[in-house]
UniProtKB/TrEMBL annotation:
Gene3D superfamilies: P-loop containing nucleotide triphosphate hydrolases. Keywords: ATP-binding, Coiled coil, DNA damage, DNA repair, Nucleotide-binding. InterPro entries: DNA_recomb/repair_RecN (IPR004604), P-loop_NTPase (IPR027417), RecF/RecN/SMC_N (IPR003395). It comes from Flavobacterium hercynium. Signal peptide: none annotated. GO terms for biological process: DNA recombination; DNA repair; SOS response. Residues 321-348 form a coiled coil. SUPFAM superfamilies: P-loop containing nucleoside triphosphate hydrolases. This is DNA repair protein RecN. May be involved in recombinational repair of damaged DNA. GO terms for molecular function: ATP binding. GO terms for cellular component: bacterial nucleoid.
Length: 550
């Protein structure tokens, strides 16, 4: 249960700290006093998203901290699974920074909002007027029946299997479509693959062929240039060799006179040796150069083949063509094995459908047993809430479809008076009747739930008088098993609480702020009297308030 709540710099609250006790707690206050602000702050602790509008002072951070006593609720496994430190007195803190960023902590360990939301499911149920309207939703109705039917574990296992079943169905449909398209696709892929295989491509081949083509295509120019170079090198009177030898001879005469001249001689000698090597290489190249039109044509054909394949497959290198070839080989193999894969997947889906049917049958049987129990308990409670002729008709309609919670469809029909036909809740139930039905549902679920805390936000809409008194008594009875809060405008309900908190506005230095205060017995009499008669409290209102409290 929640034992304390502190709020700093949130909405109209500058600073607030309050302790809560077990049992039945009442929260009252005028419209606009800040009751929704308290719930909003609590919602942030439970993982709701926040923004800068939450900050009262935009220059300071907002801090909301709640302490929960959780020793009786078997939550150690959750803490271990999420790598969190477990404490019997667990503290959840939420911070909203002026930058707009939000941080959350469980026992000082940073957590994300999803972890916070998951933990909150085990801590508090905040019932709002919107939730009352959701009572007419089929999914909500199923959740009520399944809680009494103890179907949670079965539905959880069913949903895990259903997820795999749907994934395999999606894959099978894709394979079947692929198979239907595979005739033309297989033929075309095989053609493309054969074309690439026939080309006998090799990595780096294109560069080698392009170099060879350039050489063969320009053989006459190349040979002419090389031969001219050899003539210049070897001409007897003016050739490079002749001139280098003349230079060497001249330098040999002066080399003994200086180290500098000796160095120059050595360098010229080195040049002569290197040039001699170049000349021999030129000679070898010249001898090997042949005008080979046939080889040129073959090289050109191979290059054109590579260029055409690159254009067809929209790539620029032979390596990319080889990757295309590998992909086509895999595609051809994959299409060849598709029938076997379809057969295997179909068998798996069929087996999972059998298992899902078994789960669905168990869920259905449990619901069938639970429906009379729920109906009788609802009728018993609602009779005490001024609905003596209420009747329910809950029918399970078998379906061939695997829904998220089984194969049932549900007709949840209601009649409030004798002689009236059954109808859908949202069409035939008034606002006051919906509030009473929802309270009855919560009272029943409290017997099956291990939830520590339940907060009713104005569940008394549309009721008054004796019905309000009985609603208060039911919430009081629920508080024997869990911590219950009721935000109410009705004095009959407010008088049933074990403790009473008032939300009010005050003005400090021209600034309005909301505050929450635990009322003493005398203050409580005054508050209930004011709820009865308004701002001008009469003696009869005070006496009536005392009677209600007694």
């Amino acid at each position: 249960m929640i034992t304390s709540l502190s709020i700093k710099n949130y909405a109209l609250i500058e600073k607030l700290a309050i302790d809560f006790s077990k049992g039945f707690s009442i929260i009252t206050g005028e419209t606009g006093a800040g009751k929704s602000i308290i719930l909003g702050a609590l919602g942030l602790v439970l993982g709701k998203r926040a923004d800068l509008t939450s900050l009262k002072n935009k220059e300071e951070k907002c801090v909301i901290e709640a302490q929960f006593e959780i020793s009786k609720y078997n939550l150690k496994e959750f803490f271990q699974a999420n790598d969190l430190d477990y404490e019997d007195e667990t503290i959840i803190r939420r911070e909203i920074l002026p930058s707009g960023k939000s941080r959350a902590f469980i026992n000082d360990s940073p957590v994300n909002l999803q972890e916070l939301q998951e933990l909150s499911l085990f801590l508090i149920d905040i019932h709002s007027q919107q939730q009352t309207q959701e009572l007419s939703d089929e999914n909500v109705q199923f959740k009520i029946i399944d809680a009494i039917a103890n179907n949670f574990d079965t539905i959880s296992a069913y949903q895990k299997l259903l997820k795999v079943y749907k994934a395999e169905k999606t894959k099978l449909n894709a394979l079947l479509k692929k198979q239907s398209d595979s005739g033309k696709e297989q033929e075309y892929n095989t053609f493309l693959l054969n074309e690439l295989v026939t080309a006998k491509l090799k990595s780096g081949e294109q560069e080698e062929l392009e170099a060879e083509f350039e050489k063969l295509n320009n053989v006459e120019i190349i040979k002419e240039s090389i031969d001219k170079s050899l003539v210049i090198a070897n001409e007897e009177q003016f050739g490079v060799f002749h001139n280098l030898n003349e230079i060497k001879a001249s330098l040999q005469k002066i080399a003994p006179f200086s180290v500098d001249y000796q160095n120059l001689l050595e360098r010229v000698t080195s040049v002569a040796i290197e040039f001699d090597d170049v000349s021999k290489e030129l000679q070898n190249v010249s001898e090997k150069l042949l005008n080979d039109p046939e080889r040129l044509e073959l090289t050109n054909q191979k290059l054109q083949l590579i260029y055409n394949l690159q254009k067809k497959h929209q790539v620029t290198t032979v390596d990319e063509l080889l990757q295309v070839q590998a992909n086509l080989e895999n595609a051809v193999i994959e299409l060849g094995n598709i029938e076997e894969e379809i057969a295997t997947l179909s068998a798996s889906i069929e087996q999972k459908a059998i298992e899902l049917d078994a789960f669905s049958a168990t869920i259905h049987d449990n619901r069938t047993t639970a429906i009379p129990v729920l109906s009788n308990q609802l009728i018993t409670i609602l009779e005490t809430l001024g609905m003596p002729n209420v009747r329910f008709k809950m029918e399970l309609l078998p379906s061939e479809t695997f829904f998220q919670n089984g194969k049932d469809e549900l007709q949840f029909l209601f009649s409030a008076n004798k002689g009236t036909d059954f109808g859908l809740l949202k069409k035939v139930a008034s606002g006051g009747e919906m509030s009473r039905i929802m309270l009855a549902v919560k009272a029943i679920l409290a017997q099956y739930s291990k939830l520590p805390t339940l907060i009713f936000d104005e569940i008394d809409t549309g009721v008054s008088g004796e019905i309000a008194i009985r609603m208060g008594e039911i919430m009081k009875e629920m508080s024997a098993k869990m911590q219950v809060f009721a935000i109410t405008h009705l004095p009959q309900i407010a008088a049933k609480g074990d403790s009473h908190f008032k939300v009010f506005k005050s003005t400090i230095q021209d600034a309005t702020q909301s505050e929450l205060k635990l009322l003493s017995q005398e203050e409580r009499i005054t508050e209930i009297a004011q709820m009865l008669s308004g701002a001008n409290i009469s003696d009869s209102a005070l006496n009536h308030a005392k009677e209600l409290l007694n």
